[in-house]
Amino acid sequence: MSATSPPDVSELLAGRRRILVTGGAGFIGGAVVRRLLRESDALVFNLDKFGYASDLTSIEALPQAAERHQLLQVDLTNAEATAAAVRQADPDLVLHLAAESHVDRSIEGPGAFIESNVTGTFHLLQAVRAHWDGLPAERQAGFRFHHISTDEVFGSLGPTGRFSETTPYDPRSPYSASKAASDHLVNAWHHTYGLPVVLTNCSNNYGPWQFPEKLIPVVILKAAAGEAIPLYGDGANVRDWLYVEDHVDALLLAANLGELGGSYCVGGHGERTNKQVVEAICSLLDELKPTGAPHSRLITPVADRPGHDRRYAIDPARISDELGWQPRYGFEEGLAATVCWYLDNLAWCNAVREQGGYGGGRLGLAKPNRRLVSHAKSI
User: Fold this and answer.
1) Number of H helices, E strands in the chain
2) DSSP one-letter code for 62
3) Domain count of the chain?
4) Which helix (H) or strand (E) element contains residue 147?
5) Could you tell me if residue 372 is inside a domain?
6) Whole-angstrom distance between the N-terminal and C-terminal Cα of the chain?
7) Domain containing 72: what range?
8) Sequence-distant (≥ 6) Cβ neighbours of residue 111 within 8 angstroms
9) Which pLDDT belongs to residue 358?
10) For the whole model, what pTM was predicted?
11) d(CA 201, CA 120)
């Protein structure tokens, strides 16, 4: 870890005692819930529909969870249930992380992403707006709604440059389009109704407790089992990797101190090609499981994802300059900790994959209709 200290959560909350976290049974949401429970005395209301990637194991293991964590099993696509949950939580702060988030799944079934990420966010905004309107003046003045989004809304970069808060939106997948739409809704509710909102757009997160369908856990588990490691296309697609605990630091700072109506880009200074990430995992496994070395022999090129964005990179200067955020984990350190965690928690990985009905196979194989694409370009 770097010398940078994590933010003081209790100090940041500044009297915000009731926190509503949507998607708190997911990967990033769970990390936020754990931090709030461990490092503050706030009551945490966890609104989660409990989909295929939801899991409470890491939260329920905390002694604080019994008294200060409450699960509200609600699907945001249900407007009435969402409104009732917001009334029950009676929050001083909302951190909205609930979303369908896997690009490959959005290619196979885009409808669920529109319903959850767009319609669900609309229902939540309406419920939160009604709640905020009815708060006493003192609580209303301190209330905040923090919407957590992705760098994928900005589209694909060339070999140079980085995304920032002024980058035009250019989503390329059903997932990123649905998140872009939700960002626009949140901004509209701020400008039209005065709802006190903050937005953040983050790069690729990784770390412990991530559902094993994303690149890093997939590669770790495939390599550890001696199975073929899929590498999309030429492996040269670039992502900016952000350790999840660094992201939690940024979220808590932005949610409590960020400029109302403003947005902050959060990146980990961890640009790597997918091939470099896969090879780094293989090298770590060569040390930790030498009987399987070299694990790089398992790397197997597969057909690329349709519409695969070539490069993402984030300039986090604003959140660093204004809020003092810096990542505490370098990529090598964070990756080593992540690989060790998955190797030590294979039983959990197997259990959540079985629970979620995910067998570890390839997703997102739907092909674009070339005839329609060609026709559209000729208009």
Assistant:
1) 17, 12
2) S
3) 1
4) strand 144-150
5) no
6) 54
7) 16-207+243-269+308-330
8) none
9) 56
10) 0.91
11) 18
Cα separation of 351 and 371, whole Å?
42
Active site residues: 151-152, 175
> What DSSP string runs through 42-92?
-EEEEE----TT---HHHHTSTTHHHHEEEE---TT-HHHHHHHHHHH--S
Strand order in the sheet with 271-273: 204-206, 238-243, 271-273
Residue 237 · residue 273 · CB < 8 Å: yes
Backbone angles phi, psi at 69, to 5 degrees: -125, 130
Q: Is residue 141 part of a domain?
A: yes
Among 225, 158, 150, which Cα is nearest to 181's?
A: 150
Query: What pLDDT score was predicted for residue 69?
Result: 98
For residue 238, which amino acid is it? Answer: V
Cα(9)–Cα(1) distance, integer angstroms: 19
3-state helix, strand, coil in the chain (%, to 5): 50, 15, 35
Q: What is the pLDDT of residue 371?
A: 41
Tokens for 11? 């100090």
Say if 280 falls within a structural domain.
no
* Ranges in the chain, pLDDT < 50: 362, 369-379
- The CATH number of the domain holding residue 146 is 3.40.50.720
138 in a structural domain? yes
Give the residue among 251, 238, 329, 250 at the shortest CA–CA distance from 277: 238
